[in-house]
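Technical note accompanying the year-one report. For the benefit of new consortium partners, we illustrate the data format agreed upon in the data management plan: each record pairs a sequence with a structure-token string. No post-processing was applied to the example shown here.
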Amino acid sequence: MLVMGAYTSLYADQGGLEAGRIISPVICQADPTQSYALYIPLSQKKGGVLPVVYFFDPHGDGSLPVKRYKLLADKYGFILVGSNNSKNGNDWATTGNIWAKLAEDTRRRLTIDGNRVYVCGFSGGAKVAGYVAIQHPGVRGVIAGGAGLPDGVSAGDFPFSFTALAGEGDMNLTDLVAFSSELDKTRTRHRIIVFDGKHEWAPLAVMDRAFAGWQLEAMRDGVFPRDQAFINKTAGEDKNRVGAAIRADQLVRAEQGCRVAVSFLDGLTKEADWFKQKAATLSSDPKFRQQEQAREALFAREQNMKADYMQHFQQGDMRYWQQTIKDLDAKAAVAGPERGMYHRLLAYLSLAFYSISNQQMTAGRNDVARHFVELYKMADPTNSEAWYFSAVLDIREGHVPVAETDLVKAVGVGFRDKDRMRRQPEFQQSFPPAAFSRIESKMRLSSP
């Protein structure tokens, strides 16, 4: 186990790691095969230790969350570190080694406050963040976006706080809601923040709220100076959110907002009592219970539809899936209480088609794989993995020019892993150097 203790390295000795700009890649000194993206907030120039957030992206793109949330680093004074090696498909032993090297390298280079070490991940990266927190003492808080703790881990009395983030259209929303309910029975500090969105890294404003929760927890625990103005500001903003939800007749969302506010403010201000009382008032309202029951019924209906789809993964022909996906797309475009469910079902199909396609391609069953890859592209046309899979199959089918076209489409919707592309056996055998250069040029042009 690697314990994150108090660190005493000085900023002046950080080898040119400049505050106020994103640095990527930073190569781990003990292992040059591992690297990370880094943002040191401008407040570092004043000296002293700073809290750190380690990010885990499911595709190993450490720069993505660091770029997305660097404004929060300056707002709250957090160092941001994004692993370039942690990705979906790694086993836990590999994950543990990545974390050990990452923690060791940042400990040596940076002025980290050992009392304020946080981890944050999205999708498979959320499970990595949870794994790190469970396996290694000293992690103070976990933000898990779009997924929960590693498979097989039950709710318990954890030494870290747990903040779940999920879009209304996230296929894992129902699982996260259920896990949050299980955590209600424990002593773990936790909350779930649901936003208007899909299975994605949370918007800046949502992550801002999660970071604010960490800041408030640190004040309550006495590891960060109490800031009454910030406490009052947070209470006022949360009251506004609750009021807006009530005016929109979204009583379940309002009650959830009260729960989040209590988890932030309890023990810091008497305003927490206002949210407790408001939550009690809302939960006793017959309309609240009606809306809650409608939501539960919607979740149950969603599970039944997933079960029906599972039956058709082996039986359904292309025509069935074409009509199913067309219907889901149309219903997901219509505003209303069921809209999120249809987005979640599309995301569920995307993940299912990915898994089946990957299994069939690994087994060399290319005809079956092609069937599911086409469905994957249909259900989730902006997913780069669908187009990458298609390009691999293009080569296997002898269609080299089409493969390059599909890879360019993958780049257009976010594919950036040059090393993976160059190591792919099908591309190595069939692409001339000029093809790799053309595709990599597209990556540079498409980079944010």
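Partners are asked to follow this layout when depositing records. The CA atoms of residues 69 and 204 lie 6 Å apart.
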